Amino acid sequence: MADFGDILMDFDAKSQKEKNFEKLKQDVKSLKRKRDAMLDREIRIRNDLNSGNIQNAATYKLPLAVRPPQNLSHRQVLPSDAELQRLRNIAKAKQKLQAHALCHGVTSLRGEDNETKFVFDPYVGGKPFGPFVLRMRFLRTQAVLRGHTLPHAVPTRSLYREYFEDAEDHSEQVAPFIRSVAKHLRAFLSRKQQCDQLRESFAEDIQDFQAANQCTAISFSICLKDEDNKEQITISIAMIYDIDGERPKPESLKVSFDPPNTTEDDMESLKEQCLVFYNKRLTEAVIEAF
């Protein structure tokens, strides 16, 4: 004899199956009605187009019986003017951050222990460098420097003291601080890259090359030969850079000649040619000047 519970379970399963079957039948009928209504609307639109008698768009709406039911409890609420303005400001801020990241190679992300990581990926001379990471933690109105992987040539802690030590509101100093760090980083990488390229490009012509103090004091000599009288002139060039500069400081370029009895006209002409070092990268300046 079957258990009474099993009988009830079978009965419930059959009832549920019948309900599902009835629901499927109703869905099929509804889809057929909708299909017929859409075919009828298509025929009316096509006929009106062919006859040139286009009606108002409202006349081509589907009947209410075949339209999907609208959930009135979830009507769309339009944002207020203040919310729209806030969204515009957020969009503009994102665009500025994206532009800053593309131009300067700086992005920020949330790290562990409520730290914010600023990642520097600069492109210098068409080559990527990095990533270099600077970690900060923001505590109310304080911005605390937690650490970094920047080169020693970037005076990170000195810059931090410069921007934050006497500042009342640290939040206003974060952006200028990050920009200054990025500028110092790019300047050092550019100076070093220029020195490496110069020594590589003119390995046989450059003599006594020196790049001291994080490549802020650069000097070298280059030999020039006069094809007409077979004379040789050695030109010594020395220049000073700011620690955040990619080009020499104004009026820091020093040019000397050996032998010293070079004519004054030749000396003035060569000195004028060397002014290109203020505007060009080292390798390009040597090619253009000599």
- Looking at the structure, what is the overall shape? elongated
Specify the helix fraction band.
Answer: 40-55%
Distance between the termini: 112 Å
In the predicted model, the low-confidence regions spanning at least 5 consecutive residues are: none
What is the number of strand segments?
10
Q: Which H/E pattern describes the elements?
A: HHEEEEEEHHEEEEHH
Mean pLDDT: 83
- Number of helical regions: 6
Structural class: alpha+beta
Give a quick precis of the structure:
By secondary structure, this protein is of the alpha+beta class.
What does this structure look like?
By secondary structure, this protein is α+β, with helices and mostly antiparallel strands. Helices cover 44% and strands 21% of the residues. It contains six helices and ten strands, in the order ααββββββααββββαα. The strands form three sheets. The chain has a four-stranded antiparallel β-sheet with strand order 1-2-5-6. A hairpin with a 2-residue loop joins strand 3 and strand 4. Helix 3 packs antiparallel against helix 4 (174-201). The mean pLDDT is 83.
Q: Which key phrases capture this entry?
A:
alpha+beta; four-stranded antiparallel sheet; 10 strands
Layout of strands and helices, then pairs:
Layout: H1 4-51, H2 81-104, E1 106-110, E2 115-120, E3 123-124, E4 127-128, E5 132-139, E6 142-148, H3 156-164, H4 174-201, E7 206-212, E8 217-225, E9 232-240, E10 254-258, H5 264-273, H6 282-289
Antiparallel strand pairs: 1-2, 2-5, 3-4, 5-6, 7-8, 8-9, 9-10
